[in-house]
Amino acid sequence: MVSMMFTGPLVTAATMVAVLILHILTLPANAQCPCEGALPALQSLYNATDGPHWINPWQNMFSGASVCSLSGINCSSNGNIWIDLPLRHLVGTIPDDFAVRYPRVAMFAVSLNNLRGTLPRSFALFGEHIGVFDVSNNAQLGGTLPTEFSNWTMMNTFWVQNCSIKGTLPSAYASWGSNLRSFYFYSNDISGTIPPEYSAWSSTSEFSGSDNLINGTIPRALISAWKDTMYDFSLSRNGLLTGDLFGSDGNGFCEWIRIYNFIASDNMFSGSIPSCLSNWGTTIEQLSVSNNLLAGTLPSSLQSWTVVRNIEFGTNFFEGTLPAVYSLMKKMKIFNAKNNKLTGTLPPQYGQWSSLLRFYVDGNQLSGTLPDEYYGWGSSVFDIRISQNNLSGTLPASWGVFTNVERLSLSFNQLTGTLPSSYSAMTSLVVLSLDLNQLQGPLPASWQSLTALQAVGLQYNYNLQGPIPPSWSSMRRLLVMAVCNTSICGNASMFFLVGAFGFTCPQPSALANPDLDTAALQQYILASERYSSFPCISTPAPASPTPLPSLQPARNNETTAVLPYTALAQSSATAAVWSVVRPVP
After folding, report:
1. What are the angstrom distances between the C-alpha of 532 and each of 455, 460, 492, 502, 568?
2. Is residue 256 classed exposed, middle or buried when 0-12, 13-18 and 19+ CB atoms within 10 A define those classes?
3. 249-275 pLDDT per residue, tens
């Protein structure tokens, strides 16, 4: 994915504690602070995490400071404290003696700092007092999840994402029971299986464990336990999760009445998409099951998903056609069905997706033409990938309304006709890949307005012909001008960057492939054969492009028609501002 799916917490720890405080009698402003006993523990934390260099450090810590006056510390009338210190530049380890000195901690939130070491087992002393625990986004914080934390029987929010925690998920945490609402452990090195005992968490609404090493299957007991509460569920990029994801009856997932975010991509799940998932209609906003072993057809019943924004079916084994009734998903922003075995035509009804951002159906067996109706995507769409299909017909002139499109990939098809002059309005275009089609005619001079272009692929369109328009010299960001195996002619020196190292003949898939990162693409281009010009009276350029992805070193004994591998060429290429891969907004 490109993965574009949201898997993080919906609210901050500060918001969570605000909710908890509504149910707890807090200290009146004019009362004596009942939490002064916490001062030794807070002094220990301050010393262990380089307190004097915090952002907004505590003052007078060792000369009469009051706990109730410390920023990020809240005190209740029963003596419990809430510690809320995100983004304060805490550097060091969490002291083992903290809970020994003061165990009455209702919230411990120290996310987005530079903590290292391990989670102190002594924190088990927080016991029934603690309800919110957030040490997320401390990249060097490691070790394992202490089993001893199982006595946190009032735990509501447990966030340890984006750390370096290893080991397994303790089954003993099942003791947290119906109090637990949110459990985030994504982006760690946690292995093993998901404990079926977690079915005791009957009120859990957020469970996110993406980017770990979890294996096995999703326990059906959990699926059943969370049917009335779960709305954010993510287990993507574990790789070793297996089994029939939904089963013939949905495996209980069809009974989830609140689910809005379901992410299970980049695993080894099998099975198909059951029609009963239509039950998610009024709640589901994001579904990603890309990069699995799923098969079958895409159910038309999913038309009931009236609020869905992102759907990712990519890189599976789906067959059949693209359901035209998906056009009823009026809020669609991301649609990804690439790298499957889909047939049929592109539904023109999808032009009704007026808020679409990304459309990926490359790597299928689609036929027919490019629908004119897609002009309805207008200025919202910025990434269109329809390459590697069996499409025919012409490039729709109506698509010139895509004024914010940054990537347009239509290579490896059977498209005919000329290059529309109306595409001159695509002034945000960065990568244009039209290789391996049957396009013809001259290059439009009006495309001089495409000054954001960094890569143009026109190779293997044998009937594209004529000189490169002089007006194209305005494309000062252009790094790749691939016109091999065409009848296009011109001199590389007319371009600012291309002139530094010449025309190249990259394998067409280099531009069609979004997974080739910026650095690899730059090195690949620099290592390719480079030509200073293509004479207008010559035959087309060599028939064999440079292999991909292996990088061949540049030759030193090249002819005068081939530019040498110079420092200027490398610095010019490196200076180019590549935007081939853009994060999801």
Report:
1. 17, 19, 5, 5, 14
2. buried
3. 878 999 999 999 999 999 999 999 999
Q: What is the pLDDT of residue 521?
A: 61
How many whole angstroms separate alpha carbon 568 and alpha carbon 58?
A: 53
Per-position DSSP letters for 357-391, written without gaps between them? -EEE--SS--BS---GGGGGGTTT--EEE--SS--
Tell me what percent of the residues of the chain surpass a pLDDT of 90: 76
| Cα–chain center distance at 471 | 38
CB–CB of 562/529 below 8 Å? yes
Listed residue (328, 330, 371) closest to 354, CA to CA: 330
Q: What is the mean pLDDT of residues 29-35?
A: 72
Contact 159, 134 (CB under 8 A): yes
Structural domains of the chain in order of their starting residue, each with its CATH number: 11-140+151-164 (3.80.10.10), 493-575 (no CATH)
Provide the angle, in degrees to the nearest 10, between the axes of the packed helices 567-575 and 518-527.
150
**Burial letters 299-318, b for 16+ CB under 10 A, else e:** bebbbbbeebbbbbbbbbeb
Task: Kindly report the backbone phi and psi dihedral angles of residue 105, in degrees, each rounded to the nearest multiple of 5, phi listed first.
Answer: -115, 120
Give CA–CA dist 319/321, Å, rounded: 7
Q: Is the dihedral of CA 408, 412, 414, 417 positive or negative?
A: positive
DSSP state letters, 250-264: GGGGGG-SS--EEE-
pLDDT band for position 548 (cuts 50, 70, 90): very low
pLDDT tens track for 448-502:
999 999 999 999 999 999 999 999 999 999 988 999 999 999 999 999 988 887 8
Give the burial class of 518: count Cβ atoms within 10 A of its Cβ; 0-12 exposed, 13-18 middle, 19 or more buried: middle
Mean pLDDT value of segment 385-396:
98
Query: Beta-carbon neighbour count of residue 50 at 10 Å?
Result: 14
Rounded distance between C-alpha atoms, residue 467 and residue 490, angstroms: 6
Question: E strands of 291-418, at which residues?
Answer: 295-297, 310-312, 317-319, 334-336, 358-360, 383-385, 407-409
Percent of the chain with pLDDT over 70: 83
Rounded to an integer, what distance in angstroms lies between the CA atom of residue 277 and that of residue 448?
A: 48
Q: What does the buried/exposed string (b/e) look like for 364-390 if buried means 16 or more CB atoms within 10 Å of the residue's CB?
A: bebeeebbebbebbeebbbbbbbbbbe
- CA distance between the termini of the chain: 13
What's 582's DSSP letter? -
The answer to whether 20 and 107 have CB atoms below 8 angstroms apart is yes
State both tokens at 66: 């009051």
Q: What is the pLDDT of residues 403-430, one digit of tens each?
A: 999 999 999 999 999 999 999 999 999 9
Confidence grade of residue 64 (pLDDT, cut at 50, 70, 90): confident
| Sheet strands (E) in 423-548 | 431-433, 440-441, 455-457, 463-467, 480-482, 487-491, 503-504, 530-531, 533-534
User: Who wins on pLDDT, 332 or 19?
Assistant: 332
